[in-house]
UniProtKB/TrEMBL annotation:
<dbReference type="GO" id="GO:0019242">
    <property type="term" value="P:methylglyoxal biosynthetic process"/>
</dbReference>
<dbReference type="Pfam" id="PF00781">
    <property type="entry name" value="DAGK_cat"/>
</dbReference>
<dbReference type="InterPro" id="IPR004363">
    <property type="entry name" value="Methylgl_synth"/>
</dbReference>
<dbReference type="InterPro" id="IPR045540">
    <property type="entry name" value="YegS/DAGK_C"/>
</dbReference>
<dbReference type="GO" id="GO:0008654">
    <property type="term" value="P:phospholipid biosynthetic process"/>
</dbReference>
<dbReference type="InterPro" id="IPR005218">
    <property type="entry name" value="Diacylglycerol/lipid_kinase"/>
</dbReference>
<dbReference type="Pfam" id="PF19279">
    <property type="entry name" value="YegS_C"/>
</dbReference>
<protein>
    <recommendedName>
        <fullName>DAGKc domain-containing protein</fullName>
    </recommendedName>
</protein>
<dbReference type="InterPro" id="IPR017438">
    <property type="entry name" value="ATP-NAD_kinase_N"/>
</dbReference>
<dbReference type="GO" id="GO:0005829">
    <property type="term" value="C:cytosol"/>
</dbReference>
<dbReference type="InterPro" id="IPR001206">
    <property type="entry name" value="Diacylglycerol_kinase_cat_dom"/>
</dbReference>
<dbReference type="GO" id="GO:0005524">
    <property type="term" value="F:ATP binding"/>
</dbReference>
<dbReference type="GO" id="GO:0008929">
    <property type="term" value="F:methylglyoxal synthase activity"/>
</dbReference>
<dbReference type="GO" id="GO:0016301">
    <property type="term" value="F:kinase activity"/>
</dbReference>
<feature type="domain" description="DAGKc">
    <location>
        <begin position="1"/>
        <end position="127"/>
    </location>
</feature>
<dbReference type="InterPro" id="IPR016064">
    <property type="entry name" value="NAD/diacylglycerol_kinase_sf"/>
</dbReference>
């Protein structure tokens, strides 16, 4: 494997400033020829990849899920594989792919060169890794501050959720999936491609990032007390066992709402309803630990 790499590090991510120099030193020692570009905003990522992409063999991104979301479309356009340095708060994509949060170990994973081709989600022309959602999660994203994430880490999501739940109102939506049209009254709809989101919650109990499907759930709460069993079930992806949680799966989903609802993809508010979702199978190469290749395959096998 050639080792010409574009290194993009979000120095404003939770651990970006602290780990930036360490990552550069380690990757240099591992034999990479680096083009190093510290970034201040994910808005600049597409232009940077377009500018440097033809000079390199891979792109290494240091940041969280929002930063990774900012590069996915450009990586698809340039057909470049992705190396991940988990420097964010939740690091859900890294968790899904079993990439270590320890930066020296994450650098070593990239150097070993084992590539896994993963599925991507797609909504209204935008690719995403983990999940796209509307409703409660959008309110959380709008309220969640960078300062809170740096100070409290994953707990910031829980604190912010408690603040916005009382202000969140249900909305009506039409879901078209597998030839069926379903009417719902819900506080949140999530459409997952990967396994983890929101700091370690599972999209579905058996979800993987290479199962060639999208997993949808709709939270159709009627009383505030229903949140408590939900909080116990979400980390294992067992929320579908609750009567007030609707779960569906498919390759193509359409969602329409009476009032426009913004859509959050991997922690970034990108588009809005009406929305068309698709899964794009095995579409992006990502460097993963060697044992992760086998673990992901095992999860796909029927029990």
């Amino acid at each position: 494997m050639t080792k010409r790499a574009l290194l993009l590090v979000n120095r404003h991510s939770r651990k970006g400033q602290r780990n930036f120099a360490q990552a550069v030193d380690i990757l240099n020692d591992l034999g990479f020829e680096l083009i190093v570009v510290p970034i201040k905003s994910s808005e600049h990522l597409p232009q940077l990849i377009q500018k440097h992409g033809r000079k390199v063999d891979l792109v290494i991104v240091g940041g969280g899920d929002g930063t990774l979301n900012g590069v996915v479309d450009s990586l698809m356009d340039m057909n470049l594989p992705l190396g991940i340095l988990p420097l964010g708060t939740a690091n859900d994509l890294a968790r899904t792919l079993n990439i270590p949060v320890n930066i020296p170990q994450a650098c070593q994973v990239i150097a070993e060169g084992h590539i896994k081709y993963i599925d991507l989600g797609w909504v209204n022309g935008k690719h995403f890794f983990n999940v796209a959602s509307l409703g409660l999660s959008v309110r959380i994203t709008e309220k969640l501050s960078k300062g809170a994430k740096r100070r409290w880490g994953i707990l910031a999501y829980a604190f912010t959720a408690l603040q916005v739940i009382s202000q969140t109102r249900s909305f009506r939506a039409h879901i078209m999936i597998n030839g069926e049209k379903i009417k719902v009254k819900t506080v949140q709809i999530a459409v997952g491609n990967g396994r983890f989101y929101g700091g370690g919650m599972a999209v579905a109990e058996d979800a993987t990032i290479d199962d060639q499907r999208l997993d949808l759930y709709s939270l159709e709460l009627k009383s505030w007390w229903q949140l408590f069993p939900l909080l116990w079930r979400l980390p294992q992806g067992q929320h579908g066992n609750l009567a007030w949680v609707r779960t569906l799966e498919g390759e193509h989903i359409e969602i329409r709402t009476r009032k426009k609802q913004e859509i959050n993809t991997d922690g970034e508010i990108i588009t809005a309803t009406p929305a068309i979702f698709r899964v794009i199978p095995q579409s992006l190469g990502v460097f993963v630990p060697r044992n992760s290749l086998f673990q992901l395959e095992e999860k796909k096998r029927p029990k």
